[in-house]
Design brief:
Shape: globular
Order of helices and strands: EE
Strand content: 5-15%
Number of helices: 0
Number of strands: 2
Distance between the termini: 23 Å
């Protein structure tokens, strides 16, 4: 499924590993 924030592919119902966002909120901080 596509991340609604960064549009990277991610598993559904999981935090996006590319940007750390889930359900419109930043859940985990990703080092730039």
């Amino acid at each position: 499924i596509e991340c609604s924030h960064c549009h990277a592919l991610r598993l559904s119902h999981r935090v996006c590993p590319a940007c750390g966002y889930y359900d419109g909120k930043q859940v985990i901080k990703i080092k730039e």
